[in-house]
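Q: Give me the 3D complex with calcium ion.
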Amino acid sequence: MFNRKMLMAMCMALLTLVSTALHAEKTYTIQLAETWGPNSPILGEAPRNMAAMAEKMSNGRLKFRIDSSNKHKAPFGIFDLVRHGRYDMGHTASYYYKGQIPNAMYFTTVPFGMIAPEQYAWFYHGGGMELMQEVYEPYGLLSFPGGNTANQMGGWFRKEIKSLDDLKGLKMRTPGFAGEVMSEVGVAVTNIPPGELYSSLERGTLDALEWVGPALDLNMGFHQIADYYYSGWQEPAAEVQFLVNKKTWDKLPEDLQEILRVSMKAAAFDMYTQSTHANSKAWSQMKEDYPDVTHKVFPPEVIDALRAATEKLLAEAAEEDEMAARIIESQQQYLEQVRPWTNISDRAYLETVAE
Ligand code: CA
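A: Here is the predicted complex, encoded as structure tokens.
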């Protein structure tokens, strides 16, 4: 028959089974605040895609409630909402918080920096994730890549830019670090709310503006007013971010953490491929509707001046802050390693096959 020892062992096994079953049943509802407005194409699809994957993979143990900016009223306050625990997660762009957490800016994109495949390689294999965690950790946050817009366009210009002089005094909307660089070369940088951009460009309050790329520019209608669409230099790989409150993360069992991690990574990659798809469709649409729209690249003297201004500002930032110096150095070193490969692979291929 059973001895005392065997009975004890059976009881323990039963307890473990019950606790595993209870554990497996427990659901977690994650509240996520996004910077974007309701039904925002591409940007707003990324967190929903992530949520749908995580819910399915966890067999419903993870559930999500996503609030757009019309609900939480703080499109550029996601950093605060998540770190103070008013939301468990956020979907936003690091460089919006330049004022509060200046070193987060480098995790979105850097002018003249890496393109998306290079930057993803830096994040996942070149130490980028670790540096990003180090920057967010003091705020009780975890941060993960949340999707890429792909290389952003340099903007819509009503007049052709033939020389550096053409930029002097030009009234242009271009926010963030790129705006500072533009100011350095003499552009009169103004920040105008998105809803007023079209009318400002039409009325001449603005001579030029930068938004994202064809996919998101198409509905803004800028191609109806400005003929010159320039390739970019300022946001070669704009990555948005998922922010997760560390306390929420720590409450999740390990398998749900992994499901969340994988869902965020997959949703980020999906947004990047979706951007490429939607940009290509929108660009052909623009060309069809408005044949006068002309693609341009900035002349070398403009690019040289913008690059010099970028390097000056980055050197100043590195001088002022040790963490900034580490991030900038890590990115520059990675670029030196990865770009020669890009040059002999993708660049050489594209140049060889031309069109
Ligand atoms: Ca932009």
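A quick observation: The pocket of calcium ion is lined by residues 152, 210-212, 235 (CB under 6 Å).
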